[in-house]
C-alpha cells in the first residue's frame, strides 16, 4: 500500500507543478486552489508512505516521479523543447529511480 500511496503522491506532484505554472504566480484563483489541494494531498500521501519506506527511497522516488512527469507534461502539454540532452537527463532520472527501488527491496 505504501508504494501505491507513493506513486499517487508523485502523480499529484506533477499535477501541482502543472497547475502552479497555470496559476501564473498564484494570480488565477482556480489553478491556485487546485495547486494547494494537490500539494496537501501529495505531501500527505508521501508522509503516509514514509511510515514504512526508507526516507531516501521514498523521497527520491517522489521527486523523481515529479521531475520526469513534469518534464513529460511540459513537452506534451506546454510545448516545451525536447532535445537529446533533456531526454538523456530524464532517462538517467528514471534509471536512478529503478535502482533506488531495487536497492530497497
UniProtKB/TrEMBL annotation:
<dbReference type="InterPro" id="IPR000390">
    <property type="entry name" value="Small_drug/metabolite_transptr"/>
</dbReference>
<keyword id="KW-1003">Cell membrane</keyword>
<keyword id="KW-1133">Transmembrane helix</keyword>
<feature type="transmembrane region" description="Helical">
    <location>
        <begin position="57"/>
        <end position="78"/>
    </location>
</feature>
<feature type="transmembrane region" description="Helical">
    <location>
        <begin position="84"/>
        <end position="102"/>
    </location>
</feature>
<keyword id="KW-0812">Transmembrane</keyword>
<feature type="transmembrane region" description="Helical">
    <location>
        <begin position="33"/>
        <end position="50"/>
    </location>
</feature>
<protein>
    <recommendedName>
        <fullName>Guanidinium exporter</fullName>
    </recommendedName>
</protein>
<dbReference type="Pfam" id="PF00893">
    <property type="entry name" value="Multi_Drug_Res"/>
</dbReference>
<keyword id="KW-0472">Membrane</keyword>
<dbReference type="InterPro" id="IPR045324">
    <property type="entry name" value="Small_multidrug_res"/>
</dbReference>
<comment type="similarity">
    <text>Belongs to the drug/metabolite transporter (DMT) superfamily. Small multidrug resistance (SMR) (TC 2.A.7.1) family. Gdx/SugE subfamily.</text>
</comment>
<keyword id="KW-0813">Transport</keyword>
<dbReference type="InterPro" id="IPR037185">
    <property type="entry name" value="EmrE-like"/>
</dbReference>
Amino acid at each position: 500500500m505504501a508504494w501505491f500511496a507513493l506513486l499517487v503522491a508523485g502523480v499529484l506532484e506533477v499535477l501541482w507543478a502543472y497547475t502552479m505554472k497555470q496559476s501564473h504566480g498564484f494570480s488565477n484563483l482556480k489553478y491556485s486552489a487546485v495547486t494547494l489541494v494537490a500539494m496537501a494531498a501529495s505531501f500527505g500521501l508521501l508522509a503516509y508512505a514514509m511510515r514504512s519506506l526508507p526516507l531516501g527511497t521514498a523521497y527520491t522516488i517522489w521527486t523523481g516521479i515529479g521531475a520526469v512527469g513534469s518534464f513529460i507534461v511540459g513537452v506534451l502539454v506546454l510545448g516545451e523543447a525536447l532535445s537529446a540532452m533533456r531526454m538523456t537527463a530524464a532517462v538517467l532520472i528514471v534509471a536512478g529511480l529503478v535502482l533506488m527501488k531495487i536497492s530497497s527491496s
